[in-house]
Amino acid sequence: MSLPIYLVGARGCGKTTVGQSLAQALGYAFSDTDKHLQQTTGLTVTEIVAAEGWQGFRRRETASLQAVTVANSVIATGGGMVLAAENRQFMREQGRVIYLKADAEVLAARLEAYPEQAQRPTLTGRPIAEEMVEVLAAREALYHEASHYIINAMQHPDSVTDEIISVLALARAS
Ligand code: ADP
Ligand code: MG
Predict the structure, then answer these.
(1) Within a domain: 65
(2) DSSP string covering 55-104, please?
(3) pLDDT tens per residue, range 129-168
(4) Residue 153, in any domain of the structure
(5) Domain ranges, residue 74
(6) CA pair distance 95, 3, nearest whole angstrom
(7) Among residues 96, 98, 102, which one has the least CA distance to residue 152?
(8) pLDDT at residue 23 in the model
(9) Number of the ligand 1 atom closest to the C-alpha atom of 32
């Protein structure tokens, strides 16, 4: 049995993309806290925020994190998962936490290229590039505090996956 691997980082850093390929390479299950939240509530993130505010969303997010935490799994977390000290502590205690680090301009470019994947409402109502600078400034220390390893997420997703396997000293499934 291996501890769960949590991927943390801002929207667009590749948690879902890399998480799926990492899970496949290791023969682990993959789960995504945002997706779990949507499937269990039947609501989109936008709808939850509209109905319950960000506070309600954050509370449900913590429940999703705990629900998807099982051995032999890769867990992609919502970009704001690290905001709660409870979540940071939980992830560090339960598994190994990887921060996928990328510059604000890179994140903004990815989200602008695929707006359909960036359905979450903006946090500030300002242009995405400006928002990413602000979000990273506010969260960078928390991503560091939450994580055991920091990986450069501005390389090909296959390289990001390989680097995670390497730092965790894990072997590919086949
Ligand atoms: P997250 O789950 O962290 O929000 P995603 O995995 O959904 O991020 O990726 C956001 C977008 O960026 C997707 O369109 C994805 O294809 C692209 N992407 C993810 N990782 C990389 C990468 N390492 N290099 C280039 N594009 C990437
Ligand atoms: Mg994602």
Answers:
(1) yes
(2) HHHHHHHHHHHHHH--SSEEEE--TTGGGSHHHHHHHHHHSEEEEEE--H
(3) 888 999 999 999 999 999 999 999 999 999 999 999 999 9
(4) yes
(5) 5-169
(6) 5
(7) 102
(8) 98
(9) 2
CATH of the domain at 107: 3.40.50.300
Q: In angstroms, what is the span from residue 76 Cα to ligand 2's centroid?
A: 6
Q: Which residues line ligand 1 (CB under 6 A)?
A: 9, 11-17, 76, 110, 114, 117, 153, 157, 160
Please give the distance, rounded to the nearest whole angstrom, from the Cα atom of residue 14 to the centre of ligand 2.
7
Could you write out the DSSP letters of every residue in 119-174? -SPPSSSS-HHHHHHHHHHHHHHHHHHH-SEEEE-SS-HHHHHHHHHHHTT-----
- Name the residue of 110, 123, 158 whose CB sits within 8 Å of the most ligand 1 atoms, as the mutation to test its pocket: 110
Query: How far is C-alpha 119 from the chain's CA centre?
Result: 15
- Which residue is associated with the tokens 């339960």? 94
Q: How many domains does the chain have?
A: 1
**CA gap 44, 145 in Å, rounded:** 29
Residue 145 lies in a domain: yes
60 vs 116, more confident? 60
Q: Is the pLDDT of residue 122 over 80?
A: no
Return the residue whose CA atom lies nearest to atom 27 of ligand 1.
14
Q: Do the domain assignments include residue 124?
A: yes
